[in-house]
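Researcher: Please translate sequence to structure tokens.
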Amino acid sequence: MSERTTFLREFLRAPLTVGAVAPSGGPLAELVTSPVTGEGDPLVVELGPGTGAFTEAVQRRLAGRGRHVAVEVNERFAERLAARFPQVEVVLADARELDRVLTERGCGRADVIVSGLPWVAFRADVQDDLLASVTGALAPRGVFTTFGYSHTRWAPPARRLRSALGGRFEEFVASRTVWANLPPAFTYFCRRPHVAAPAVSG
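Model: Translation complete:
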């Protein structure tokens, strides 16, 4: 079964947790994973890897170095991902349990956290809980990346996410639009987390 077919099937099963009808394309995957450096042994954490579009790009950048932990809530995606990438530590769990996931595996804070989560599909409280997990797990000099679809950029959940990112990170910037993606998308690059940042209301 192709990745697109698998993704569409899982979207129809659980649209609020999958959040898209097709996996991200190569150009977007390269942009989202660009903070993964070609040096050292970084800990890279991936949230919501789905069928592995970002996973493949992370593995290509790591080239056998470091450690790659992928947290996926969808059992079918997790099974497929583990079979495709045996070198990746695939964990079946909710991303809000990230602290527990890393502690159980003896991991410190992540150098890079890459998110494929469908933020606009989440309630405000879920967004807040997820961002708290991210900032708590990210190293002080680490980078958090996530993406959004251009056509939803001004929807209330997307605007709220921008506000929340601004409250939880000293720096966050949006990339150019990746028109080659279907649908077109962009990436947020977030640095210097405020671990104890309050939830953003609204």
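Researcher: Any highlights?
Model: Residues 47 and 178 are 21 Å apart (CA to CA).
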